[in-house]
Specification:
There is one protein chain. Helix 3 packs antiparallel against helix 4 (195-205). The mean pLDDT is 93. A hairpin with a 2-residue loop joins strand 20 (282-287) and strand 21 (290-295). The relative contact order is 0.11. The chain folds into three domains: 2-106, DNA Polymerase III, Chain A, domain 2 (Roll), CATH 3.10.150; 122-244, Roll (DNA Polymerase III, Chain A, domain 2); 250-368, DNA Polymerase III, subunit A, domain 2 (DNA Polymerase III, Chain A, domain 2). It has 375 residues and is α+β, with helices and mostly antiparallel strands. A nine-stranded antiparallel beta sheet has the order 6-2-3-4-18-17-16-10-14. The chain has six helices and 27 strands.
Length: 375
């Protein structure tokens, strides 16, 4: 096997495929990236849950197949000079060179490498920037506790031309609605996908204008979802279990509403939260067109700050985890945040606004649970 490829193309392909490699695989073969060289170079990687594939166009002298340590190759590729890279397989070693830089890599057992799942049937397509933005908005609320796997996922609910995304870690809930172009205009499907899988797909596939969705039918023995963008593919098994019911948690009416400049509020939250731990509640008091932020109590360090805001309704005295509040404000992706309250002991709902008196962007909602605050 021998081929020559451009450095930047190789780095892009290797980085993409290496995303699916496990740090603690059940087999050493899963540490590797498979190179299948025919008329093109096909790279694949897998941790048995998620599989990635990239296609490289190269100057091919000799076809062949080889499995090389994936993360080591990624480090080497990034370190090579900006020159064409030559790969040569000689026995059980692979020689990688660019200019005067030369590396020799061991190979892994090709025969032990698993058969990767086929990409499911194409379900539709979506603008890659819309897809990436929506995933980023929702993934921020996904759980990190692997002992509760269904909370580490993003709920994907497809009804005709609408996709509803939702994620929660029990302390906050993010919900986003976007439009897409389904192959079947009557499509109705629900699935649960790892948040990190979707986030990786969104981050890397955004370089192309469109992302193709591929989803296994609901009656399939193995539930898979795939994403395709030009010459990159990701296929992942979906999570077992049902995502918690959540639509009843989203209030339709509020007893108080505030509109605040996002950057101004973020700056204030950061300043006031300096005197306390990131997990200790930050107190917010809304009344009379004013928001007062407070942190710290007793003999500890304390901080307060007041902001002029647009406000209507009952007075609200509420406390939030400052990190979760900051995450929600970043996810808004708008100049202003609209915060709706029913009462101080119930979740607040954050949504975006382009103008202080403009229309509320109801396509994205971030529900944040209040915390108990000790005076």
């Amino acid at each position: 096997m021998k081929f020559v490829v451009e450095r930047d193309a190789l780095i892009d392909a290797v980085n993409w495929v290496a995303r699916s490699l496990s740090s603690r695989p059940i087999s050493t073969s899963l540490l590797g990236i498979m190179f299948d060289v025919t008329d093109v170079v096909t790279l694949t990687g897998s941790d048995l849950e998620t599989s990635t594939k990239a296609i490289l166009h190269a100057e091919i002298n000799t076809p062949g197949k080889v499995l090389v340590p994936g993360r080591l190759l990624a480090e080497i590729a990034r370190s090579l000079p900006l020159k064409p890279i030559t790969f040569v397989l000689d026995g059980t070693r692979v020689f990688v060179s660019a200019g005067s830089a030369k590396f020799t890599l061991p190979t892994l057992s090709v025969s032990e490498y698993p058969t990767l799942p086929e990409l499911p049937e194409t379900a539709g397509s979506i603008n890659s920037e819309i897809f990436a933005a929506a995933i980023n908005q929702v993934a921020t609320a996904a759980g990190r506790d692997e002992s509760l796997p269904k909370l580490t996922g993003i709920h994907v609910e497809i009804k005709q031309s609408t996709i509803l995304l939702a994620a929660t870690d029990r302390y906050r809930l993010a919900v986003k609605e976007i439009q897409w172009n389904p192959e079947n205009s009557e499509m109705d499907s629900k699935t649960l996908i790892r948040a990190r899988t979707l986030a990786d797909a969104a981050k890397s596939l955004v370089t192309n204008p469109e992302v193709i969705f591929a989803i296994s039918p609901d009656d399939s023995k193995e539930r898979l979802i795939g994403f395709v963008s030009k010459e990159k593919t990701m296929t992942s098994r979906t999570l077992d279990g049902e995502f918690p019911t959540f639509k009843h948690l989203i209030p339709t009416e509020f007893h108080a509403e505030a509109t605040v400049d996002v950057s101004m509020l973020l700056d204030s939250v950061r300043r006031v939260a300096l005197v306390t731990d990131k997990t200790v509640p930050l107190r917010l008091i809304f009344e009379n067109q004013t928001l007062r932020l407070e942190a710290g109590a007793g003999e500890e360090a304390q901080a307060t700050e007041e902001l002029d805001i647009e406000y209507s309704g009952i007075s609200i005295n509420i406390a939030f985890n400052p990190t979760f509040l900051t995450d929600g404000l970043h996810a808004i992706n708008n100049t202003f945040v609209h915060i709706g309250f029913t009462e101080s002991s119930k979740p607040a709902v954050l949504s975006g606004r382009k103008e202080i008196d403009g229309e509320i962007d109801s396509s994205y909602k971030y529900l944040l649970m209040p915390m108990k605050y000790s005076s």
